[in-house]
Amino acid sequence: MNIAPQFGKGAAPVTPTTSWDISNVLKGTNWADSYYGPGIKAAEDALTDFKGATGSRPGFFHPTRLKLWWLNTKQTIAKELLNYDFVGFHNYKMGPFKVLFSTPPRGALVAFAYIGLEVARAKRAWERRWVKDDAGNKIKQDFRELRDIAIRDTWSIAVYIWGLPVFNKLFLNAGNKASGIVLAEKGDPDGYTYAQHQANRTLGNVLDTHGKVLATAKDRYLANLLEGSHQGMVKAAQSNTFLGIPRGVFKRLGGLGNGLLEKLDQWAELRRQYTTEIEHDAGLAKSFLAHPNQLKKSPAELFERGKAYFAKEGGLKGSETLGKLTQLQAEIVAAAKKQSPTVGAWVEKNWAQSDHYLARAAKSWAAGMGIASFGVVLFLIGWLPVAYNAWYTNKEFSRLKAEQAKISPLLQLSKRASLLHSQPYAPYA
Fold first, then answer.
1. pTM reported for the whole predicted model
2. For the CA atoms of 307, 311, 314, 316, what is the dihedral angle to 10 degrees?
3. Residue 277 in contact with residue 237, Cβ under 8 Å?
4. How far is CA 285 from CA 70, 274, 362, 370, in A?
5. pLDDT digits (tens, 9 = 90+) for 255-296
6. Are strands 130-132 and 138-141 parallel, antiparallel or unpaired?
7. How confident is the model at residue 121 (pLDDT cuts 50, 70, 90)?
8. What is the C-alpha separation between 224 and 192, in angstroms, rounded?
9. Domain extents for the chain?
């Protein structure tokens, strides 16, 4: 489809939308009397004042430059710290309830937490720093609450705001190696979303709303191999969790009879064939990607070169078999629905489509890495400060106890001396 250029070279000339042109206003000597004159005159005066008579740039402390600096500073602060444009909305379903959460900008969280929470708590702790006797007289200052706020709150807020992306990145990098699936691109702390995994790791045809094929199963299969998920495709295919038949499906379809168990045996045999073929395809992908020149190619060029490479090596072995698996599974579900709509609906719901196996594996690994990073953050926020406070309290208690142990013999002598002086004088009999 040819799209005419709108901007840059080759762009069509812009047609004025109004008959008024500023160049016409500035012509002649009576422009200041026009409707736009005062505004243009004020702008010219401000420009002349800013540049000076020589047209040179004024010093920083020139009033106009200070105003511009303050305006830019305010805009920067408002944009980075006080931006309330909550664009990341997430729907969560908890039982019968649906909750909509928004993800605020990180700068807004900094402003809320440090300025709104920690400063307010520190102010209150400062007001309560005095230790008083029973008469209300100030004896000494106790800064322990301020110390706790400075350590615990500063640490917890920092971990909450900046820690999760850091640990996400660490765990996702570990998950990339352990799963063999690309869970996040290099340098991406958030990784792919579940929706992206579902869309990109489904190895069947992509259809539009009218049933037209937008991307073929072979292309999607090859794209995942060349992206670097070839090892993960093998691991997930060999796992009954992601590409297998749930026990409940065997039980329910076996109760229906009429050859459904024989079809399940055919599906299992096809699956064994596919696990062999995906190992072959993954080995070719590994050899292709091992060449250092491939890393310098763009994704589109890499895909075309990979397609030519696989064609030369005999084509993709597993893509067609995976399509047969998916088709046979659909036939089994349809046959079950004819015999028992209830059983057929249950089997369809609980037996995930064969060409979704990689998407399920990717989402499972991503969920595990997310839970792990979230657990580390919870530990650092909830348990670590408590453990530190306990350690610090025990340390202070031990120090005070040691000091008292040094003083206690002197106190005992002092007590004995005071007792002797307090007893009445009794002469010897």
1. 0.64
2. 30
3. no
4. 56, 16, 19, 29
5. 887 788 889 899 999 999 999 999 999 999 998 888 777 666
6. antiparallel
7. confident
8. 14
9. 195-369
